[in-house]
Amino acid sequence: MIISTDLLAQVHAHGEGAYPDEGAGFLVGQLEGSTRRVLDVLPVSNERPSEERRNRYLIGPHELLRAENEAARHGLDLIGVFHSHPDHPNRPSETDRQWALPWLSYLITTVEAGEAKESCSWRLNDDRSGFVEEELEKVEKANPAK
Amino acid sequence: MSVLRIPTPLRPYAGGAERINVKAGTVAGALEELVAAHPELKLHLFTEQGELRAFVNVFVNEDNVRDLNGVETSIREDDSLMILPSIAGGADGLQKVDHAALRTNQAFIIGLSIIAYILDAAWLAALVALVMLAGTLLKVPGFGFIYRGLLKPRGWVKPEVLADNPEPHHFAQGFGGVVQGIGYGLLVSGLAAGWALVWLVVALAALNLFGGFCVGCAMYYWLQRLNVPGFVKAPPPGTVPGARPKAG
Lengths: 146, 248
Known about the structure:
The complex is a heterodimer of chains A (146) and B (248). Chain A has helices at 5-18, 61-73, 94-99, and strands spanning 2-4, 24-32, 35-44, 57-59, 77-86, 105-112, 115-124, 131-134, 137-139.
């Protein structure tokens, strides 16, 4: 997955703002063959009850629909989800696996003591047994055509 | 004829289809038609137990069927159906816990303890306690080897893997093993009251097996809330302490 440093910084800022809770949002972009290019990020509210947000996130179905419609309005696709792991590695947990949708890219950022450290991107296996890490390429411009 | 809209992440498993027409009169029937046409979707829509995955929401027009009659919600002609998932997850540190193995363990604890009582075989009650305590030390269900070696491979018992904390289950088994062991101790001392403790373990295991509530786990979580050292795991979010977590 290709993401610009600016958009990645927005993802990290959202995670830092949500800390010590988990922050989440959508990745919007386009497909380029087998690669995905992130062209925008859509932060959303974590809909878990406040006492559960420390290590869980929830985005309701209406937010997904809103994000899909927003992406379609700009001729783009909803290609992934980002969320933060406060003081926890940026690897998918068992809960991440059980709740994951196939096909989407899951960008996970570790936020330690309020500071975003590093992000990794993952995709769920077709048999739901686990995730495969996908290469995360950081570029200067989100859309090189512009 | 109703239209069922498929969300973007599931379209690759539906031949790229954005929507299909369905004839069924219920949501369950519509999903059956969808899966019949695109079998690869079944794994992502349903658990191994055939229940709709927790993140799958089906809307009939503007209504989430979870707020109506679930998958038995009726569909009228020209209704618009939409599968609209929730997006969720988190770092919570839960692990894969096969509740089918736990249930097998509970069934054998119950069965063998009752047989012990019927036969007045205190040694059998002691054996059950030893297996429970050994399992606690090894951090596995004591009679789980029967599930792993026989029941699961033969397909007689299907796995039910849930995101859960294994530690409370270990504690519950250990607590039960200690109580059963004390019961045995009373029996060999000539006190029939020992059988009362054995029956207590049977009752608690039965509450877990048939009622889905683990008293020992609830005790673990209460101790965790009291910040007792060694009791560090909080209940899975949205789960009553001691109750079985929901499947994803």
